[in-house]
Amino acid sequence: MLLAVLEHDRGAMDEAAREALTAGRGLAAQMGVPLHAALIGADDAELVAEAGAFGAEAVYTVVGDVLADFGPEGWGEAVAELIRRLNPAAALAGGSERGNEVMAQVAARLDLPMVANCIDIQPDSGSGEWTMTRQQWGGSLLEDARLQSKLPLLTSGLHALAAQPADSPVAPVIQEMGVDLDPSLARTMVKDRVVLEAGVTLPTAPVVIGGGRGVGSAEAFAPLEELAGMLGGRVGCSRAVTNNGWRPHSDQVGQTGTRITPEIYIATGISGAIQHWVGAKASKHILAINIDPEANMVVKADWAVIADLHEMIPAITEEIKRRRA
C-alpha cells in the first residue's frame, strides 16, 4: 500500500493533505496498491471520513502527549514507526513547510532518501528506480530526478495539483496504533499561538490587490485598500515596496514573502520579477495593470490593462459602487 501522511491543525485538515491524498490516489492506482493514510495527533471521525472521501481505504491514528500539538520530531518519529510496522511501498505527504519538515525527519530516522515537491511521479516499473519531476526555487525551475530506494519518501508540490475527492468515496478502516514516543521529542512541539490578524489573511484571501514600486508611496496604497475592502480581499505588495518601507514584510508576496492562491490577483505597478512571480503564480487568475506592455507580469498575466494604475484603480472602484447602488 501507499501511505499518505495527513497534515492537520488541531483537527482541521489542511489543503496540503487533500492534495497529498489526490496525488497519492493517482500514484497508488499506477502501482496497483491501495491508498492508506496516517493521522498523527488526532483520531477525529470527520478527518477520517474526509480521508475516505479522497480514497483512503484505511486510516492509522496515533495519539499521545507528545503529539498533543504539531511537532516535527514527534510527528516524524510517529510516521517512521508506522512505516517500520506497515512496510508500505511508498510514503507521501503534502509539500507544505510542515509536510516537508516531517518527511525530512522520517528520512533521517529511517536513513532513507527523500524527494520533495514532486509534480509528476513515475513509480518503479522494473527498472529499479523511480523517476519524478520536482519543483525547485518555488516552481521557477523544474528538475527531473531519479530515485533508487527500497522505500520512496516523497512530498507533492504544493498547489501543483488541485485537490479532488474520489469518484467513489469509501468508509476507511480505522486502526489505532500505539507508539511509545520519548518525551524529549516534545521539545519542538507548538506550545502556544498568537493571533496576528483576524479575518481574511493574505494566504487565504479570495482576492488580492498587489502594489509595486509603481504605486509611488505608502499613502498611494489607500485606493488599493479601498478596492480590496470592497471585494473582500487583501492588499499585497512586492519586495521593492517593503524595501522602501511603504508596507510591512507581512504584506510581501513572493519567494521570501507569502505565497498566495486567490481566485484573482490584481497586480498593479509590479514589474513581475521571478521572486514575486513565485509567490503569485498559484493564483487562479491574474490581472496586471501596468504602463509597460513588456513587463514580465503583463506578459504572464491572464489579462492585462496597459494604463496608469492611479487612474484605473479609482475607475474600477467607482464602477463597483455604481453597480452596487
Task: Summarize this structure as a short list of keywords or feature phrases.
single chain; 325 residues; alpha/beta; Rossmann fold; 2 domains; five-stranded parallel beta sheet; 16 strands; 30% helix; elongated
Summary?
By secondary structure, the protein is an alpha/beta fold. It contains nine helices and 16 strands. The longest helix has 17 residues, at 15-31.
Describe this structure as you would to a colleague:
- It is built from nine helices and 16 strands.
- It has 325 residues and is α/β, with parallel strands linked by helices.
- It folds into two domains: 2-188, HUPs (Rossmann fold, 3-Layer(aba) Sandwich); 207-324, 3-Layer(aba) Sandwich (Rossmann fold), CATH 3.40.50.
- Strands 9-8-7-10-6-1-4-5-11 form a nine-stranded mixed β-sheet, with helices on both faces. It has a five-stranded parallel β-sheet with strand order 13-12-14-15-16. A two-stranded antiparallel ribbon has the order 2-3.
- A hairpin with a 7-residue loop joins strand 7 (114-122) and strand 8 (130-136).
Shape estimate: elongated
Helix content: 25-40%
Distance between the termini: 58 Å
Q: Any idea what the CATH architecture of the largest domain is?
A: 3-Layer(aba) Sandwich
Q: List SSEs in N-to-C order.
A: EEEHEHEHEHEEEEEEHEHEHEHEH
Uncertain residue segments: none
Q: Major sheet, described briefly?
A: 9 strands, mixed
The proportion of strand residues reads 15-25%
Rounded to an integer in angstroms, the radius of gyration calculated over CA atoms is 22 Å
Strand tally: 16
